[in-house]
Amino acid sequence: MAEQHPDHQIEKDRLDYTKSFINEFLEAAEQKQRASKENIHEAFVNLDHLDSSLSYINILVNARFFETSASDLAHLKKVVKKPYFGRIDFQNEESGQEESYYIGKVSLFTKDTHESVIIDWRSPIASLYYDGRLGESSYEAEAGTIDGSLNLKRQYVIEDGVLEEIRDIDVTTRDELLQVSLSGSADHRLNEIVSTIQAEQNEVVRADLSKPIVVQGVAGSGKTTIALHRLSMFIYTYSEQVDPKNIMILAPNDLFIDYISEALPELGVDDIRQTTFTEYVRQAIGRKVKVQDSDEKLLTLLEDGQEDNDFIAWASGYKGSLDFKEEVDAYIRDFEHSFRVVEDLKIEGFTVFKGKKVERLFFEEYAYLPYYERVKKVKSVLKTDFKKKKKEMEKRVEDKFEASFDRLYYSMTNTEERRPKVVKLHEERDRKLDSIKQTTGKVVDEYMKDIAVWKVVDHYKDFMEKLGERDDASLQQMSLTSLKKLKSNNFELEDLAPLLYLKKRMYGMKDENRFQKVVIDEAQDYSPFQLYALKEATGTDLFTILGDLSQGIHSYRGLHDWDTVMEHIFPKAIYRTLKKSYRTTVEIMETANNLLTERMPHLDTAEPVVRHGQNPDFIKVDKTRKETALAETVERAWKRGALSVSIITKTMKDATSLFKKWESENVQLLTKDEKLEHGKVAILPSYLAKGLEFDAVILVNGKETYQNTELDIKLLYVAMTRALHQLYFVGETTQEFLYPEGL
Ligand SMILES: Nc1ncnc2c1ncn2[C@@H]1O[C@H](COP(=O)(O)OP(=O)(O)OP(=O)(O)O)[C@@H](O)[C@H]1O
């Protein structure tokens, strides 16, 4: 097909030119590298008998060059096989000149003329490739808006350095490259999508990088992928000011971290901290607290059908609310006001400092510091003050003695009578001076000894106890159940936000737990207080928050809308929505959308990108044949070209029992700490599936079937939207998947 494009020869020549440019560049760099290797070798040889410090410097210089060029070279070597994926021709309105730009994953310029050979997809002008329509266009550069005309937008398929296809995009053509990319298979890792980022996604990737952003995106709209690309953009734009080590990604579990981590080096965003909220809080408070798995709690809600489910859901929601944060604020205020140093500090009759002054230091001067930092600061100020005053006090004792002595001298002329009095005065003076000299800074510690120094966990228990004293039955019950757990050192996820917040407000955060930027994926499951505490603890509001309320399976404690986040937590945030779903076929998405429209019409449904596939299959079996039917369905999925297949049950109990029955090496039971194994059928419960995707998904129930509750509808929706190409329901009736007969 490429042969037919009128510009084929020109483009082939251009590709050859680019490849030889890169190869020459690589050769020159490799030569330099060899030279530096030789230098190192020489320096090592000379180390014994020459001036060793010079040789050492030699080694250092060369080793450093060797290191940087090695990583650059590795990057370029990768690029040479596919130097670019797109081209734009842009005519600058001001100069009237038209230039062609080839867009790839690096920037390369000719050394002498500084002409661009390839431009990085993250450079400002490359934005035209993603959102520019042919004709009048503009892009934002450092110097301001650049207007002009986009005259050509072209895509290339280059495989192994060979130009295979050229596609020109005009207003009417569909993005075929996207279609090709989406029809590919998922091999258990997140892809980098720089060549096919869509306009609505590009807006999220490039939206003002100096502001927080909240993204509500439907299932499969590319939230996770886009978050990583925005991060790549951020690091590229602020490479001078930002150290990737000061960026943190928060993901729901290790399984998910493993899933995204493979995409990070491709985007040049390795080295960033990837962790879970629980792990971050553990590090921040410096204690490996035992935290009950929140999915287990979900299970309690799902499986046990306990009577107090309503109470559990209420307590979880309340602990995650900003009202609860206010309660913690009030507790901190009360605790601070228990700081009373009413007495003045007196030594030998001198007032070293007044209680009032200490209070002023604490409540006014250093009020900006966390409580315990403030106590430390006030102590150190008092100690320094005391050292200064010591000399003054000594002088005042001497002066006082001189004055008394003078008085005695003039009032008592008889020396015999006067002598014992003088001796007494001397003794008194010496005693006082000794006492002052011997008094050290410890007197300040002693003076402030009544100020309690507690551990953060003890503060939380104290806070809970105080809540339990209120005249409110729900609070009393919450306090009672929480304290019972806390006393045996068991925490729930909902306890972590208040703990983190208390840690920040009372003790302050260590540098290693503060960040310049934070990315939160699957944010619909975070509570407002969790987000608030994170903002306070990390010391930045530069958050990228992505989520989908329709998938809010933890909504009993999570978010119900984004308004609270925008109004009360990140008021400067930009808000964007992603409405298109790229993951699934039209057929699968429509089936999932039907579920939402029928059962939860207030939630957003996704608009699938036009890509057709087979209709979801409902396979009716009786109980005894379930396992056989599943095995047959798996076979069918492999045969239809799936590279990854999963069986999703409603609960973990069901997943485990199915796994035990299956007993095959080709099957893996997924838990949240596991890594997905290539080529194996993954069996997992619905709530662990969020964020992941598989070519083929088979839904099956064990003992439990999905009920018509908000939670179950969302769980089912999450499970269904994991499928890229094939979706199967295996069950006795369609109703168990909340579907009417005749799916
Ligand atoms: N512009 C794009 N070009 C190619 N593939 C894309 C594009 N956008 C998204 N995808 C693909 O769509 C799938 C879904 O992306 P991703 O997992 O990032 O979505 P998500 O919004 O986080 O999904 P969910 O909320 O359902 O977990 C991935 O396979 C991703 O590679």
From TrEMBL:
Residues 196-585 form the UvrD-like helicase ATP-binding domain. Keywords: ATP-binding, Helicase, Hydrolase, Nucleotide-binding. Gene3D superfamilies: P-loop containing nucleotide triphosphate hydrolases (3.40.50.300). The keyword NAD does not apply. ATP binds at G217, V218, A219, G220, S221, G222, K223, T224. PROSITE patterns: UVRD_HELICASE_ATP_BIND. It comes from the Bacteria. One of its GO terms (cellular component) is cytosol. One of its GO terms (molecular function) is ATP binding. The keyword ATP-binding applies. GO terms for biological process: recombinational repair. PANTHER family: DNA HELICASE IV, UVRD / RECB / PCRA DNA HELICASE FAMILY MEMBER. This is DNA helicase-2 / ATP-dependent DNA helicase PcrA. It comes from Salimicrobium flavidum. The lineage of its organism: Bacteria, Bacillati, Bacillota, Bacilli, Bacillales.
